[in-house]
Known about the structure:
globular, 45% helix
Amino acid sequence: xxxxxLRILMVAxxxxxxxxxxxxxxxxxxxxxxxxxxxxxxxxxxxxxDMPGIQTVRIPAVPWYxxxxxxxxxxxxxxxxxxxxxxxxxxxxxxxxxLHAHLHEGAFIGMLLKWLLxxxxxxxFQGSLTVECRDHGFFRPGSLLERLFAAIECRINAAADxxxxxxxxxxxxxxxxxxxxxxxxxxxxxxxxxxxxxxxPRHEARHTLSIPADVPLAVFLGVxxxxxxxxxxxxxxxxxxxxxxxxxxxxxGYPEDAYRRKADQMGLTDxxxxxxxxxxxxxARYLSAGDIxxxxxxxxxxxxxxxxxxMACGLPAIVFDTPxxxxxxxxxxxxxxxxxxxxxxxxxxxxxxxxxxxxxxSHLVREKAMREHSWRARSVSIVxxxxxxxxDPPGDR
Length: 397
């Protein structure tokens, strides 16, 4: 790589960086590729913050758009038009060899850039655009709008020279659900930097948040919405409170106001601490306050990157039983019946009551994160995909 650095233009149609899963994947991929000798530029929206060591180029300011949370919006197409022209402008001086587009919106922009620049397009697939929009209530199942989005998604999938997926389930969805040829797909699941995400002294964040040392604490870190299972998490709290459980919850992420109010309305004020947004650089310290970690996410095919951070911090994780979660956690995971808040609560209570099991799982998940989930190994796979898309012979890789 040192002899032949690749110039990579990453297209990120999102307010990067905003301390959430999709952005973490973009950041860690770019950082790992730079460490291998690639020259990476990220072109993105006007809001978000720049991360050290990665050159980030932004569209002109759009004063009325300040949304940092995930999900579709009718305002985004205007931002994506600006992003397309900013990418063209940057390409004149940067002269990229590969377009690496995140999300389907980015791949749509990349499809147009590919035609103009005559370079390969690699799409980073983190879930179906059509399914995400439907799950977020953006349109009704079976509607004309859903069929239109599905047609566009098919066209984008076909235009990409290669598709990276963040899970094997995502790769299977592309093959079986969208008819993408298997040779075009490479599963590159999320990873973690185990030097940044590591166990910290348990008392540090607890002292900051005024959480007593003897309180059994379950932690969650991520975007706060129904899609991530937050309504089920509140129901889990309600069940445990009715059982007079001593377990308390540290809920980290945003937007927190709606769920804080909902928790109050459900009489759960004493069950949970809501921190709001936690800076990525501080996430490991706050996670380390917990005894266990939770992810009630319901998607069966979309990535679940927070699990890697939980593992690297030595936190046993309770999740719903999905192929994505099993691929990541394997034998170290605690699996509740899919979508069942009663079973989720039961698993929390059982693990909190078994200190020996928690200690064993803490060791196993940390070891698994270090052994299997480094970003360096992931970036080598990505470069191989780039070289194949460029048609380089194996000896040049």
